[in-house]
Amino acid sequence: MAWANCTGTGSIMASGPRVGFNEAVAITTIFLSVKILISHLALVFPLGLTASWMLPLLHLPVGLIGFAILAWLLNQFPGRTIVEIGEKVVGPVVNSIFALVYFVFFTFGSSLTVRQFSEFMLIGFFPETPISVQILVFMGGAALMVYLGLEALARVARILFFFLGFGLLLLLLMTMNLWRLHGILPLWGPGVPDLLWAAFCTLGVGSEVFVLALVTPFLPRGRLLKIGVVSLVSAAVVVTVLILVPLLVFTYPVVREFTLPMFELTRAINLGRFFVRIETLFLPLWIFAALVALSAALYSATAVAARALKLPYHRPFILPTVVLILAGAFYPPNFSTTIEWGFVFLAQWSFVPLGMIMTVLVVATLVQRRRRQKKKKR
Amino acid sequence: MRLLKLGFLLLTALFLAGCWDYQEPDEVAWVVALGLDRGRENLLTVTLQIAVAANIAGAGGGGAGGTERTALTVSMDVPSLLAATELTHAWVNRRIDLSHTKVVIFGRELAETDFSRHLAPLVRFREFRPTTQVLVANGRAEEVLRAAEPVLETNPGKYWELHTGAWDTTGFIPRNGFLNVNIDNKSPGAAAGVILVGVRRDEGGPPDPTPKSQGSYKAGTIPRRGGPQVDIMGAAVIRNGRMVGVLNGDETAIMKMVRGTFRETIKVVPDPLHPGQFIIVQIFPRQQPEVDVRIGEDGLPRVTARVLLEGNIIFIQSGEHYERPERLRQVERAVEENLRKDARAALDKAQNEFGADFFALGYHAKRLFPTWQAWEDFAWDEKFPEAAVSIDFDFQVRQIGLLRETVPGR
Amino acid sequence: MSLLRTLSRLLVFREPQEPVSAFDSGREDRRRAGGVPAGSGYQDKFRETYRLNALLEQDPPLSTSLDENERLLREIFRLPENKDVVLRPFSIATDPPLRALLVSLDGPTDRNVQNLAILQPLMLLAGLRLDQRLAGEENTPGANGASTRQELLRRIRETLLPGSKVTPAGTFKDVISDILSGNSVLFVDGLDTALVIETRGWASRGVGTPQVEAVIRGPQDAFTEQIRINITLVRKILRRSSLVTEFIKVGRMGAHQCAVLYLDDIANPDLVAEVKRRLRSIQVDYVSESGMLEQFIEDAPAGLAPQVKATERPDRVAASLAEGRVAILLDGNPWALVVPTTFFSMLHAAEDAYVRWPFGTFARFIRYLGLGMALLLPGVYVAIITYHQEFVPTDLLLAFTGAREQVPFPTVVEVLLMEFSFELIREAGIRIPGTVGTTLGIVGALILGQAAVEAKIVSPILIVIVALTALGSFAIPNYPFSLSIRMLRFAYIALGSLLGLFGILVGLFVHLALLARLTSFGVPYLAPVAPVTRSGPDFLWRGPAWEQEQRPDYIDPLRRRRQPRISRGWVRVRKKDDERPGGR
């Protein structure tokens, strides 16, 4: 990591952004696990009941295999993102459809995320501030971040990773006196078949790892697989713990009630007369996680657009994409619709189109390869 | 630079647009306690206790101090609790804020019919929090709030916090809070025990100087003179969203021991060798209680609970030389026997009188079921009254205090 | 009588005596179309200066004729108006005597050296030796011919001038710059090369104690205004042959000597080249202070934090050089610039390394706390008091409420009022003459605060907040950095009052993003935390001295390891025999 090498040029843009191993892991982990802080969690409990905490552990092996395939595909074409690979493998026409899918995934995904975070702020902390202002402030922060570039985003994510981790640890420690170990009993929740089906239905929770397919050229060479595996495992651990703790504190039938289980968890903290009502202490956790995830999504969307249109810069796309995201964020008529849509779009079925695209790309790559080998033999 | 200017411009624009949630603390009336009663002219009578901040802050400065009122208590008849917060604008010139509410007190009449119906939905409202304490009054809640006057402190919020927080220094107050009550209310396998609060009243009748445990009283009936008018002691048992009965201090202590929330109590035990004289011990938990639940062939649960305690001898009236290591067992056995007696009374109330598992023994049964559906189908709460429950105690003396033996006076 | 005079003075009109000035500038009507004011004096002067500057620009070589040289010098130095330049004609006591001219400035030259080491040997002692030597070799010393002249020059330089540093100079530009810096220049008739003799001796402050970066433990010397002394102070610590000092002149009008110091065997050559490239490229009249120089070489002049570390301590410069950084010293300035620098080094003090490491670490964390308070405390106070009242413990909230009961201002106004008056106190405290300074502190801090509370203008809790904020900002060891923090504090107050903690946190995120984007000479500002690079335990906390095994990776030094893994040589290395039971 010879940073001083850039002194000669005096500008980092000239050599392209560089994202180190730790930064990439931080950004992917935060992006993957940010859902757990908002209402997504509320819809997990009705599926998994007392065994909800097993869902991420069930998702993990599938995610790892999926990512291994994605990493194999990306490694076949070093220095290219998934958009360019698609163009090479299936041609520009089909690939433009693919790119559109990626773009919609990231833009509408962040629309729903920002809406949920803003609704959360509205319910929890700022009941009289208009939601439009809150969404605008969130998106403004994210847009500025993306304007400053991937490198700054990765570094900030890395720094905040410490803070977020510390915040979660604090949350765990502070609720420890409220844990009721019978919260995870009966152990198998809805029963094993239902649990497996629930895990299958929510496979989309790992789709965010796709962000790595868009920043591949900037990652340290040859470490893509490791970055993905570490991020997936750490996100699975974080999510498991964050499902487990509300279960232990509220126990099953009560935990279903809340729209924002994590928020409720911080409100439940009760350590004597001084350490109560300290949900405000965890405000950084939510806001920083939201901003990092939104920036990552916004960057990915703009990067998809830039790559698909073969432009060297993503900056011109920031403003249009933000406008699209805002339009999407204002679209759901109320909070409960937003929650449902967010769950359906981000967690439940997003893996179907993405998985199909990946399959097409992998098959096409294999076919092309075989053809090339045959040609060589001739 | 351009960015900076733009940001500055935006900030100014925001400034002009308005600070929506901005609110000075002195423009708010802080409610510290709430009371709910069956209404006289409407569905509910809601009582708000509001802290008078100016007097509280002034008293600290040693100004006029002392005699000024630090709490303002007002009752209103409204259809629901949150409707009251709007109606308050009629008589208070500040916005009402419930986020510092320490206690919600239910009048007995209301608790016996509609406890959960009025309590559970409260948590939807952000200013109401899961850490709030829930109490049931032996009479009307408005009486309690009106009678509650902080004596040792100026801040009524602190008064309620300290008062209900005493669960860890006495066995007679259940460990509580909205969160716990809510969970016990909504989970199959447990009934909630809520703190009992009462205004002191003289229950006539002839004086009765026979020896009694100090834990045999309930809030409002403690024989005392002087001091504040409000007591906290014992528990109200809630089953199916309704209050079904009251536990006295000793029974509350047993409930806490079996639940594992017990911290400390003082027990007056009859001397096994000298009738009419007493040994006094201080009791602490040694470990979490061991509860074993099995399902018998008849489909009914069999529960054996073993409460592990330890403690110190703090007083031996008779001067008997119990302090010797080989004789401590006698004291231990006497204590265990005494606790067993309390436990029998409490269990009798649980199974026969209330039909409510306020010991939360059902939680220990959850592990026997593989799925949630199976556990719900088992219907613990229906089967509990017929269950075979035995509560046993294992007490060990640790400390004997500053005396190794007592030399009899001559 | 006098009454009458007064009356007449009052009543009788007199022509008013307006001051008449020959210089009357800035009037539109006196300007010509070309933007140059009319007037013959102006025109002449303009032309003359233009000619002289063009002459200097050409950099003419010295003439062999002494008179010609003298004429040009007189013109260039504006003699006879200019009284500072001393032209001392004399003759060297050779046979036949040579006409010579000694030129120097009156003031910065050391008179004693001039008299004893130049004039005395040349005028009195020259005779014997020069005559004999020259006579032995050549008959005619005045004969024309380059080799003869060179020989004569060599003779004078080697045998006649006992000064420690005598260098030949061939052009007017060199000569003039040396004269201006206090050296004496000797012109000899018939020679087209002048001799520059080191006679600098202007008054300067001695080496004193650090004024800003004071420490309890550690060396107590600080840089002074003399660049030579400053370099010496660094060399005194780093006695190493690879310590290189390169001089670069910065500024077109009055060129200031600017020294670039680095360890040739450790500093990255690309970094050194970049520093020199930036310094050479500066096109400016003159740079007199390192703070001005800093602005010319910073990566991002509008960045939220200084990207160059200024220090007045030679030991810090030496330590930085040993890490592979580059130091820039400017003549006439007691502040050295160290590049590249990172966020974390802004919060390091020299003392961290000198005290035992647990306390060094502790002090650093106190400083981070100070940074947080200086930046965020007032903003967070406003946000919590006005937006997040549920977060405040009830007792405290009721105390706030009660205390604010009679305060007429909203909390934001209160905070801004107190913060601005505190900034006022601080600014006034710096500008005020030293003797009154302490009084000001008392007036400002005690009386103003007390009175404001008594008058119910602010609530007493706010005084605590403002005082803590001030303490926090004083705990930041780097002065320019603390200035930027002081400014940004107001942005956070604005954000806090607009959107509560939400605003502050979004602001913090943007702040972090801007810092993460910043570089100092190509090195990421937040290294080694983001991006993660290998580094010794010396950025967030201060590890033990014997664990500082690696130089910071982000500087990319030529040699990375600075001490072996086991640097405490006396620690016994565990051998196999030690494993036996009962062994150590």
List the helices and strands and how they pair.
The complex is a heterotrimer of chains A (378), B (410) and C (584).
Chain A: H1 21-33, H2 40-48, H3 54-76, H4 82-124, H5 131-148, H6 150-175, H7 192-201, H8 211-215, H9 224-250, H10 252-255, H11 261-268, E1 270-271, E2 275-276, H12 283-308, H13 318-330, H14 335-348, H15 351-377
Chain B: H1 2-17, E1 28-38, E2 44-51, H2 53-60, E3 71-78, H3 81-87, E4 95-97, E5 103-106, H4 108-119, E6 133-137, H5 141-147, H6 156-164, H7 178-186, E7 192-199, E8 230-239, E9 242-247, H8 249-259, E10 265-270, E11 278-285, E12 290-295, E13 301-316, H9 328-354, H10 362-365, H11 372-378, H12 380-383, E14 388-399
Parallel strand pairs in B: 1-4, 1-5, 5-6, 6-7, 13-14
Antiparallel strand pairs in B: 1-2, 2-3, 7-8, 8-9, 10-11, 11-13, 12-13
Helix pairs in contact in B: 8-9
Chain C: H1 2-11, H2 40-58, H3 66-76, E1 85-92, E2 98-105, H4 111-137, H5 146-160, E3 166-169, H6 172-180, E4 184-188, E5 194-197, H7 227-237, E6 243-250, E7 256-263, H8 269-280, H9 290-297, E8 309-311, H10 314-323, E9 326-330, E10 336-339, H11 343-346, H12 351-354, H13 357-387, H14 394-404, H15 411-431, H16 434-454, H17 460-474, H18 479-517, E11 519-520, E12 523-524
Antiparallel strand pairs in C: 1-2, 2-4, 3-5, 4-5, 6-7, 7-9, 8-10, 9-10, 11-12
Helix pairs in contact in C: 4-5, 7-10, 13-15, 13-17, 13-18, 15-16, 15-17
